[in-house]
Design brief:
The chain has 3 helices and 6 strands. With 124 residues, it is of the alpha+beta class. Strand 4 and strand 5 form a beta hairpin. The radius of gyration is 15 Å and the shape is elongated. The two termini are 23 Å apart. The relative contact order is 0.26.
């Protein structure tokens, strides 16, 4: 968890419950599911004007907030959920697109989301 932006541990749960909690919490926060595999989820939500000013460039056609969530099965009903958040500039050309990994900004909001995932997956 030290290398990810935010993380949580889920106990006494199942893979289906954890995956369901991840998807529902992000959906409730306005994110769309871009892709999914058994252990990984990619979400997207388009940022507003201030996001474009901070993370965009002259060529920006939009900046998206794109969390990537990994779920690790630790055995015996215990799971680790890790989330990194990227600000991705979309310019219409993949050669000009830029990515920024968040390191501190917005951490409280994503920590709260991890708490909701934990509670929901544990049935609380």
């Amino acid at each position: 968890g030290k290398s990810s932006f935010v993380s949580t541990s889920v106990r006494n749960s199942s893979r289906a419950s954890v995956n369901g909690a991840v998807k529902s919490v992000f959906r409730e926060e306005g994110f769309s599911l871009l892709s999914e595999s058994p252990n990984e989820f990619h979400f997207r939500k388009w940022g507003g004007k201030s996001t474009e000013i901070i993370y965009g460039s002259w060529f920006t056609e939009g900046v998206a907030i794109e969390p990537e969530v990994l779920v690790f099965d630790k055995g015996n009903g215990e799971f680790a959920v890790h989330c990194d958040v990227y600000m991705r500039e979309h310019s219409g050309s993949e050669l000009l697109d830029a990515n920024w990994k968040l390191l501190g900004s917005g951490k409280l909001a994503y920590s709260r989301m991890m708490t909701r995932i934990k509670k929901r997956a544990e049935g609380r």
